[in-house]
Amino acid sequence: MKNHFIYWMLIFMPFFSFGQNGIQKENPAAAPLIPTSKFSLLKNVDVIFNTRLAFDNYFVDNEHVNSLFSVNQFRFEVKGKIHDKVFFRFRNRYTKIADPNTVDNMSRSVDMAYLTIDVAPQTELSLGKMIGDWGGYELLTNPIEILSYNTINNYSENFIVGASLSYALLDHKNKFNLQLLNSRTKTFQEQYGASVPPGITATETPLAAVGNWKGSFFEGKLETTYSYGYFMDAENTNRSLISLGNKFKNNKWLLYYDFQYSKEDLDQKCVVSNIIKSKHPYAAEDVSYIENWIRLEYQIQPKINLLLTVMNSNAYWNGNPDPNKMDRLLTSYGIIPTVEYSPFVDLNMKFFVGYVFKKNDYSAYAQNNFNATDGTTGQLSFGVIAPLLVL
Prior knowledge:
14% helix, mainly beta
């Protein structure tokens, strides 16, 4: 498709030049916006409109709240090679507030803006804003395919500025990635404000180190992405994240399973902090989150795909000073059945119907001490998912 586009441009370029003859006589220095010498670069560049449009119906505790049309996702992406050894990728999210960022000098609506350089055989160096390689398959999946995230990925800052060094073994079945990133996009004050606990101060090095291993086994039927991340959030206040992502393929079946464990000296997700804020004005200290995410896909026909996502997350306040405490404050559950219909063989565009059901189950301790109340939410969506490759 790209080659046809380039050929037609070359054919019609003389006619465009002839039609602009009068202008060129007045300004002999005028030149085409894209010089013909650069046309070959277009063969290695993709322009993608990552889109999800839907008619959404919202429910709270089984009561209908409202219904409306929405552009759930629109992320403009350009990526490709600009040199045999240099690759770039840029993606901007137009369905997120583009507030300026005070740490990395970049709008938070920008997901990715980085260069990748082949520095040696099987070795790549990436610099810029990139996805943190810690989230398992839930985070690695194109966001337009995820109707709702589990707790850790939903409340984490997953696109961060930094550097990455990757090395792939010769068999291409194992790849190792080391990232050194900022630990957040906001300043410490913006992140926590007046909720900073006494005695905790901002660190001079708010950085994160992430190690990731991606493996492939049994002729690609089993793939893994395992990682460990260490984050410096404040002075002597850190965070550790373990992610174990697994992907199984068998004929028409595709199964994902992610396990994640986050131990945080200072509550970065703020889920625990929001539960206890009625009696504890500061961000919670010594918290942890443990969760599971399962996604099952089954293609019953070439054009029809069935999906089922099941997730749960547990929030613990281990640093609660109450001697009668119960560490677990909340267990949340989610289930997302979805049906997709792909009408075109040569175009990746799907019509879908999906229902996102979530339930919050607070412990008796959270209910009795912080007036937490169990509840459910639902979202029934009819729409279109399309990573539209326009070039």
